[in-house]
Amino acid sequence: MSEAIAYLNGEFMPLGRAKISVLDRGFLFGDGVYEVIPAYGGRLFRLDQHLQRLDHSLRAIRLDPPLTHSQWRTVLRELLQGDGDQSVYLQVTRGVAPRRDHTFPSRPRPTVVAWATPMDAGPPRPARVLTHEDIRWQWCHIKAITLLANVLLRQEALERDCHEVILIRDGKVTEGAASNVFAVIDGVLVTPPKSRHLLPGITRDFVLELARAENLPFQERDLYAGELAHAGEIWLTSSTRELVPVIELDGKPVGDGRPGPLWQRLYRRFQDYKQAFRRER
Question: Which residues are catalytically annotated?
Fold first, then answer.
């Protein structure tokens, strides 16, 4: 793929030329939100759901959407290059203010930037994860760009030879630092219910749809940290990594230390769906 094309405030340009002001509130305060949207075969996947979540995040930070859904579709499709699997990163901040002040500018002009990058091909690498107290803020249902806590948690996982961290709040699983969490408990697929403590994942919801289509029993309920140690399988989901099996938790094997049969079943179903989606051009 040639150099990525960026969209910045109404203009398309090479990504390396896209610049923002040091007075942008996203740079100064992390005052903004974002989305990551996968594309298969040159088609944006679950775009309506991603745009609805973007609207929710913008409302939560009291910022009017800078573009309509129709305008977003036009912009985001223009960024795709070829038919390979890609992901589009989209960010909206409250824009440039005349001075650094915590309060909102009276007439904000949002900064909008987006670009596409290739996604990794092939099956996901099975993950080793650790558990950690959830040290983030209280409004994790907003897809905000203020991700320092997530960055520190993922870095700790990396330094301990792990791929991800599963977060625990008041004895209950919330999510990963950059993923949603599923566990197979006594043959039942369990994932924490939506709340302000976790991001409402688009891939999370899709996996539940696949489970329903496969007649797999599942529950959206509180998942307790103690249950993870006895889970037959643990999975992570995200828009770019899709459906990842966890083979080790806090240094101990999950199940028999290999991707489990339910993961394999839903992963195949996921890939079948993607192939059909690619052909719907």
Answer: 143
Element (H, E) at 128: strand 127-133
Q: What is the pLDDT of residues 202-229, one digit of tens each?
A: 999 999 999 999 999 999 999 999 999 9
pTM of the model: 0.95
135: phi then psi, degrees, rounded to nearest 5: -100, 10
Question: Tens digits of per-residue pLDDT, 46-82?
Answer: 999 999 999 999 999 999 999 999 999 999 999 999 8
Q: Which domains does the chain have, with CATH numbers?
A: 5-118 (3.30.470.10), 127-279 (3.20.10.10)
- Among candidates 169, 170, 137, 166, which has minimal Cα distance to 153? 166
Please give the backbone phi and psi of residue 221, each rounded to the nearest 5 degrees, phi first. Answer: -155, 170
Q: Are 78 and 12 spatial neighbours (Cβ–Cβ below 8 Å)?
A: yes
Say whether 25 sits in a helix, a strand or coil.
helix
CB of 45 within 8 A of CB of 118? Answer: no
Query: H/E element holding 204?
Result: helix 202-213
User: What are the tokens at 201?
Assistant: 């994942």
Phi, psi of 209 (to 5 degrees): -65, -40
